[in-house]
Amino acid sequence: MREKCGVVGIFIPGEDVSRLTFLSLYALQHRGQECAGIATISEENIMLHSGMGLVAQVFNETIIKELKGNFSIGHTRYSTTGSSSSINAQPLVIECDMGSIAVAHNGNIVNADIIRDELERQGVEFKTSSDTEVLTQLICNAPGDTWEAKISHMMQKVEGAYSLAILVKDAVYAVRDGNGIRPLSLGKMDNDGWFFASETCALDHLGAEYIRDINPGEIVKIDSAGLHSVQGIAPKRNAFCLLEYIYFARPDSRFKKSLVHPIRQKMGRLLAKEFPVEADLVVGVPDSAIAAAIGYSEESKIPYGEALMKNRYVGRTFIQPDQSLRERNVQLKFNPMSEMVKNKRIVLVDDSIVRGTTTPRVISMLRKAGAKEVHMRITSPPITNPCFYGVDMANKAELIANHKSIDEIEQHIGADSLGYLSIENTIAATDNSEDSLCTACFTGNYPTNVPLQFDKMQLETETADRHGLQF
Questions:
Q1: Closest residue by Cα to residue 193 from 421, 443, 11
Q2: What is the CATH number of domain 262-432?
Q3: Mode of pairing for the β-strands spanning 240-241 and 437-438
Q4: CATH code, 5-239
């Protein structure tokens, strides 16, 4: 799995907020490590800085000081539609009849190609290969004399997942799709300020009070008069991404006011009940599986220990867009401690097996370090279906569980045994019902219409062919 994106929006009366936006993007760095960007409003002009790389690589003190204004949005990106390229960095700024608009997007629009064709027939020209430009141009060219009306029109036309931070000359908007697939949380700042972000950990870092989640289909406008909410479209079936609980979110974030860390511990406890084994040590794959490993240890009474050290200066392996880089980075990323595992039977807990490239290398490392047995335990069901909503695993051929049985996967990864948490217990750990979550990657039950197949480079290929561009 590769990450999605993180979005931020901030307004504090009379205060330049670019530094706060920069710090909040730091808190969301785990959601994307390819590009970062900040847009602010100064004297009705949008000021933008974005680029390739980590937040700390894209920004410095001089740049932050130049981004004036008390309205701001920010974005940290992993590409899910369009390539990893500076031209696709966000926020995206477009000039419209009503003035400039900047948009930062987390998610994926599944009918972007159809809408783009319609807009191009109307004479709209596109400069990027991202679905974010499609929905932004749709807003700009929508009927209506207010931004709320234009945004609502866009929401009625697009299908898929989107949590948006939108900046115009006198306001910021938080917008969430009708299924609430991607997260977006609202916080209150001191001095009558407001703050929204993909995860509540960003609110915590800036001292904002978590108020609530943005509702599915809701448009929240924040301006000098305060906060205003309208329903852009009627809410549909609530379908919050189950992978946020399992893997994507930081453990100190909250969804529906529930902290992620104890949810992952509960997944580990339920996993120990479903798949017990005689062993000497429980080890979690850092960092997202640590809480689940602790839960497995508590339930099984097998001691927990840190036996895999993570080099935190090496980015998450799946962030690398190139498969060969992902594979090389596994050995750079983890280092087993032989004294902890030598001659021991290990229960290795992880959150998922997607392609089946990383797990065999980790197990091999533990065996070379002296582990006598390695029993793999996964805190989610097998991933058998592609995601169309902002997780870059859209090709069925990439998914090992789509074409191998659990016994075959066990043999492929080199484990002594393999157990996946059932979908029923995965959902039960979150205290949600199945009809309030998106479980499509596990069950194939998609909350929206989806294409038969998806190519993240489709818009890019079409644009290059038509206009002779390179990305």
A1: 11
A2: 3.40.50.2020
A3: parallel
A4: 3.60.20.10
Q: Where in the chain is the domain with CATH 3.60.20.10?
A: 5-239
- Number of neighbours of residue 228 by Cβ within 10 angstroms: 13
What backbone phi and psi angles, to 5 degrees, belong to 308? -115, 115
Q: What is d(CA 258, CA 65) in angstroms, rounded to the nearest whole number?
A: 36
pTM of the full predicted structure? 0.90
Residue 54 structure tokens = 């980590």
Does residue 91 have a cis peptide bond before it, meaning omega lies within 30 degrees of 0?
Answer: yes
Residues of the chain with CATH 3.40.50.2020: 262-432
Q: Specify the amino acid at residue 68.
A: K
Identify the active-site residue in 5, 201, 241, 441: 5
Q: Parallel, antiparallel, or unpaired for β 45-52 and 35-42?
A: antiparallel
CB 429 within 8 A of CB 270: yes
**Type and span of the H or E element at 457:** none
Active site residue 5: yes
Tens digit of each residue's pLDDT (9 = 90 or more) over 381-418: 999 999 999 887 758 888 999 999 999 999 999 999 99
Residue 434: count of CB within 10 angstroms of its CB? 15
Q: Are 393 and 354 in contact (CB under 8 A)?
A: yes
Distance CA 7, CA 28 (A): 8
